[in-house]
Write a structure and sequence with these properties.
- The chain is of the alpha+beta class and 68 residues long.
- It is 32% helix and 35% strand.
- The chain contains 2 helices and 3 strands; from the N terminus they run ββαβα.
- Strands 2-1-3 form a 3-stranded antiparallel beta sheet.
């Protein structure tokens, strides 16, 4: 499972990018990622003070490996 975040620079709000954080929720219900993902996003935000997390979601690894 991955947490996909949309993050933007605080100093330049129009400068945004996608960040992926891999988690180990594959064997657990998706709600586990949603609940525990909040703290993961908070830690990422603390470690990257120049950015603000605009939104985030949990995505299974299998969905990321599918061709577009």
């Amino acid at each position: 499972m991955f947490i996909i975040m949309s993050v933007c620079l605080i100093a330049a709000p129009g400068t945004c990018r996608e960040e992926r954080v891999q988690q180990t929720y594959e064997e657990r219900p998706p709600i586990a990622c949603i609940v525990e993902g909040q703290s993961t996003v908070a830690v990422w935000q603390t470690e990257h003070p120049a950015y603000v997390v605009k939104r985030w979601k949990c995505v299974p690894r299998s969905r990321l490996e599918q061709p577009l």
